[in-house]
What does this fold into?
Amino acid sequence: MTLKKRPDGRKFDQTRKVEAKAGVIKNADGSGFFKIGNTSAYAAVYGPKELFPRNKQDPKKGLLRCNYNMMPFSGAGDRVRPGPSRRSKEISMVTQKALLPVVDLSNCPNAVVDVFIELTETDAGSRCAGICAASIALADAGITMKDMVSAVSAGIVDNQVLVDLDYQEEAYETGDVADIPVAMIPNTEEITLLQMDGRISKEDFKKALEMVKQPLKDLAEIQRKALKEKYK
Amino acid sequence: MGKLLVKDKEVVVPGEVIADGMDYLPSFGTYRQNEKIMANRLGLLSVDGKVVKTIAISGRYIPRRNDVIIGRVFDILMSGWRMDINSAYSAVLMMQEASFKFIQKGADLSKFFALDDYVVAKIIRVTSQNLIDLTMKGPGLRKLDGGKIISINTHKVPRVIGKQGSMVSMIKDATGCRITVGQNGLVWINGEPEQESIAVSAIKKIESEAHHPGLTDEIKVFLEKRTGKKIVKAIPQPENKPIFKKPENTGAHNSESVEVPEQKVMRKSQ
It folds into this structure.
């Protein structure tokens, strides 16, 4: 048995509808909004600013601090318990690691750039949406970065390799399901985030990674367009 | 044969390919990857002959030597003051740079500048670790009494000042306020309360419409409408000109903070 058609009628390598905006939070030094399907993320960047406590300061380069948070009402009905959890701490960490390869903070020693990611609505793929929003926000804040980072999930549902799984697909009951969030630097095709949930064969895994490349590049274009839109 | 893929003065975003081929040279805010030149920050593209660079349009204030800035005293040190200069780093005003007058050993420094006082100061040194030294010895460098401070995007400061200070003098003449614009994006305004609020809204208008061509005329109309007075002509008066408009900066920094090409006249390189 293989999946013939996706529940929402998308093509196998098609992402959900994407909406991106820059400069949505006026008070922040830079901000971004990224919505993919029913998952929407806001990111605000503050800094570079002085880092306290001082023992965390690095005299060689600035620090990038990311914070991922799902809002209490963002789930599918159940209240998401506010505050840091094991999951949100892990996602904060992988977000930071996904963004670090592009940002250059060597000209702001002893300082910190804070990235706050808030998810108002989630329907799978929230860490990817968060990374996309954060990347827009960092660029908007005038941080030196060699490229944008775009992220989307790939995966397998019922023996069919797919791009951008939504919650319905992630929770598919028959056959193996794997969800692989991928973040990539589009110009160099370097992968900065790669995680996996579920089971997938080596061949399918390679196929999924190949399949997700073009959608990621398209997402980067959407991010860039959002930034240009702000300064029109 | 190299070719430029983005037009001059257009907004470029990180990772965008600006030029293809080896004919162009990457400068500030750009880098070369193989044959291509890419932007590594958000900004306006500036092409000068073969050299391409981006001019930042967002982000926090980056301290530079010879900038006249507005700072707030937030700590009093053994022999000086620590100032918040609206940047990632704080600056130090040392005692010997604070005044032309002699300050007695062991004097109470808060008598000169107390906590939360605002001052106009000039940056004299910036180290690689962004340690900043200020001076208050110079024309126009002073403690600010009264008035209000507003904060604007530091990259819009050249627009607020205008060509040869035309914009800020026009606001001054129209509202009768005293205005000092710091390079770090802090603006001090002192005058009648109603006039102050007109000056604030004019400055905010300049900030949000900085990219409009013919902004000076737009602001003139705006000021005439709000003050109900006719503005004859905004001629910058040399004796009242704020010090920061003096051509005292180095060329490199100049173009960094210049937002729109015609403003290059504002601070000539020496």
